[in-house]
Design goal:
This protein has about 300 residues and is α/β, with parallel strands linked by helices. It has a single domain, classed as TIM Barrel. The protein is about 45% helix and about 10% strand. Strands 1-2-3-4-5-6-7-8 form an eight-stranded parallel beta barrel, surrounded by seven helices. The longest helix is centred in the C-terminal third of the chain and has 18 residues. The protein is globular and about 50 Å long. The chain starts with a strand and ends with a helix. Belongs to the DapA family. Keywords: Amino-acid biosynthesis, Cytoplasm, Diaminopimelate biosynthesis, Lyase, Lysine biosynthesis, Schiff base. One of its GO terms (molecular function) is 4-hydroxy-tetrahydrodipicolinate synthase activity. InterPro entries: Aldolase_TIM, DapA, DapA-like, Schiff_base-form_aldolases_AS.
Length: about 300
């Protein structure tokens, strides 16, 4: 289940006063990435703007996505919250709705000890029956999932692995060591090192850029699996263009605007307080889309 390219989809919003969720655009985006070869849909992650989406919206969005995907690929959902109690409540509701697995981010804002962090993941995993993937992105949460934490929960039956967005190769090596010992999966969360991570032993990637260029990224993974190293490296290099442009605004502004300007889906704005693109950045995004032959 945890392999190849998994898309952490945007949460599309209308440009109305409340920036309500656009479900028509959500379905269009889901169809686009599935038709272009991705192997899974991950909702309510960092690119999905989970911190600014209400509890009730998360439940409704999960229901709609499970309906739209309709078993074509697995659906992974992010129940992450600052409190263990809220994370458990969301995880249990998402399981009832029918998601295939959960990706649980570290709590944020409060600096936790390793044992506190391990206990959080243990309690969440033991509250559900479906697979749980830990999600490490310390630059955003302030809490790094160390090798000690990962190993401490690795033997829990439904802990299936970890997504690493630390961009730290030594950290990735530690995860792969634990994963091999317990037969778990490691997923890359940094789009610039997918090929490197796969060659080290990672099984796949949760790749934000695949919202816009899913076929290129799926083709890259196929090349890796077929040991076509030259092609894989060429396609990995191609990902760098969109990554460079993506860094020119607050996440996920550039990717959402690229979806709109490319006619892929009306992803709308990021939710406030994040601002929309400047006209100058719009032009850079158009040039990037031309490069990928999306306009």
């Amino acid at each position: 289940m945890f392999s190849r390219i998994i898309t952490p989809i945007m949460t599309p919003f209308y440009r109305d006063d409340k920036q309500t969720i656009n479900y028509e655009a959500t379905k269009k985006l889901i169809d686009y990435v599935i038709e272009n070869g991705v192997s899974g849909i991950f909702i309510l992650g960092s690119n999905g703007e989970f911190p600014v989406i209400t509890y009730d919206e998360k439940i409704e969005f999960t229901k709609k996505v499970v309906e739209f995907v309709n078993h074509r690929v697995p659906v992974y959902a992010g129940p992450g919250a600052c409190s263990t109690q809220e994370t458990i409540c969301l995880a249990q509701e998402m399981e009832k709705i029918g998601v295939d697995a959960l990706s649980v981010i570290s709590p944020y804002f409060v600096k936790l000890t390793e044992d506190e962090l391990a206990n959080h993941f243990k309690m969440v995993a033991e509250s559900v029956n479906i697979p749980v993937i830990l999600y490490n992105i310390p630059r955003m949460t302030g809490n790094s999932i160390t090798k000690y934490v990962f190993e401490k929960v690795a033997s829990i039956p439904n802990v299936a692995g970890i997504k690493d967005s630390s961009r730290d190769i030594d950290n990735l090596k530690d995860y792969l060591e634990v994963a091999k010992k317990y037969n778990l999966s490691v997923l890359i969360g940094s789009d610039g090192i997918i090929a490197q991570g796969y060659r080290m032993g990672a099984s796949g990637a949760i790749a934000g850029m695949s919202n816009v260029i899913p076929k290129l990224m799926s083709d890259m993974f196929t090349a890796l699996e077929n040991h076509d190293e030259e092609k894989a490296d060429q396609l990995q290099e191609e990902v760098n263009y969109i990554r460079t442009v993506n860094k020119k605004a607050t996440m996920p502004v550039v990717l959402k605007r690229a979806l709109e300007l490319g006619g892929i889906a009306e992803a709308g704005p990021a939710r406030l307080p994040v601002s929309e693109c400047s006209p100058e950045l719009d032009e850079e995004i158009r040039e990037m889309l031309k490069h990928y032959k999306l306009i």
